[in-house]
Hints:
Transcription Regulator spoIIAA; five-stranded mixed sheet
Amino acid sequence: MxxxxxxxxxRLLVSISGVITFDDxxxxxxxxxxxxVCTPALVELSLTTTKMIDSAGIGMLLLAKDKADxxxxxxxxxxxxxxxxxxxxxxxxxxxxxII
Length: 100
């Protein structure tokens, strides 16, 4: 997994590429830490270039949602397609995190 963050006008955009698996929990922790301290009230996790996510990756998305909620921010997912969309749908994450 690789990621980059950028502050846009009204949101923190986190673009995640590659695969999100248990092995990525340390770099994902840095994303969660950024969510806690960012200024924008909206955090967008872009999964446009994410090719695969496993159950641990789904858990990490839920951790990010929890941190955003506790920090008074909204978290949304974007670019959810292909394998990632299937896993998100099967795990019902789309019922917990808004997809734009």
